[in-house]
Structures are given as structure tokens and as C-alpha cells.
Amino acid sequence: MDALRSRAQSCTKCPHLASTRKSVVVGVGDPAARLMFVGEAPGAEEDRRGEPFVGAAGELLTKILGAMNLSRDQVFIANVLKCRPDTPGQPTGNRKPTPEEMATCLPWLEEQIRIVQPEVLVALGATAVEGLLGKTVGIMKLRGHWQTYQGVPVMPTFHPAFVLRSETPAVKRQVWEDMLAVMERLSLPISERQRGFFLPRAVG
Ligand code: URA
Fold this sequence. Notes:
The chain is of the alpha/beta class. The chain has one domain (2-195): Uracil-DNA glycosylase-like domain (Uracil-DNA Glycosylase, subunit E), CATH 3.40.470. It has helices at 2-9, 15-18, 44-49, 56-67, 99-116, 126-133, 139-142, 160-166, 169-185, 192-195, and strands at 28-29, 35-39, 76-79, 120-124, 147-149, 152-157. A six-stranded mixed sheet has the order 1-3-2-4-6-5, sandwiched between helices. Strand 5 (147-149) and strand 6 (152-157) form a beta hairpin.
């Protein structure tokens, strides 16, 4: 992974992204992790710090991992795109990676998956699903349903940024059910308390 990291640092396959990025955000965590998370692309904070999922969405991902009794260094976290999508003429904001950018960057992620050899992949949001599986079926339909990437089970779930925007208990529970399925697949211990997270409380 270290060798890949240093090769990726000098990638200029997307000249427009190479000239606007502050960092190439390769990935973080255990390169021999059993569980690997794949997101969309670095945002401003990730670009600044050179680490995926360290902004607001990242804080939520870290909390989700905590609820699973996992830490960021026990899993591997990467994105489909390693560079922040540029937003010419706009000082702030994010944009979705284009299909061309995703196709150009995908070999890095593919190589990372070959190195990590995770037992389970989690695709965070529609763009991660599109980049990883080439599927443009809506995330609303796909989430919670196991997919396969080169023989590795993939659980599509909502992107933490979507969870933050929607803030509804039902969406939180859906993501949590997806994580329970992941934990079951990995035979991780699950307490009764964990099973009940984000369930509506019985009244009376
Ligand atoms: N959103 C992503 O998809 N990836 C990040 O690294 C940060 C936010």
C-alpha cells in the first residue's frame, strides 16, 4: 500500500484535478483489514488534510464505526476518486465526479482492493456503487441488498452526508441495519443493545 501511495501521489491522469488539488487522498486504515469502506471523492477538508472522511460526513462515519465497536485503524477507508473534484469559478462546494474521472481513477481503487483483500466491502452512496459496480440503479433500491465485486460481497448503503442531510431516525436505522448485516457477515459479536440502535422506542 505504501508503494501504491507514493505512485498515486504523482498521478496526473486528470490534469484538471492534479492542478487544483492540495493532496492525493489515497486511503487510510489497516491495509490487511477484513472490512473496507468506499466513498465518493475527497471534499475540501479531506483535500486539505490528505485523509478520506475527516469532514462532517467523516465524523459520522467514525461514529458508525464506533457503534460497530470498530475504529478507523481497524478498517480500510478509500474513495472512488483520489482527488477532489474541482469546481472552477466557485470558491466552495462539491460536485459529483464525472464518469470519465471515475473510470480514469478506478485502477487505483481496484489495486487497493487487491492489496487489502477485504472479506466485505461497503459502498457509501450511489456514486460509490456506480464507480465500483458500474450500476446506476438508485441507492434507495440497492441499499441493504448484497452485491458482488470480483467475488467480494458488497453492501451498498447511504452516504453519511445523506444521513446528515436527512437526519431522520428511519434513515439512520436503515444504515444501521446495513451495518448489522455486515457485522453478521464478518461474524462480529452483536449485543442486544446494538441490535436495538435507532429503533423507535415502545411508548407506554
Ligand atoms: N465524502 C466522500 O465520499 N469521501 C470523503 O472522503 C469525504 C466525503
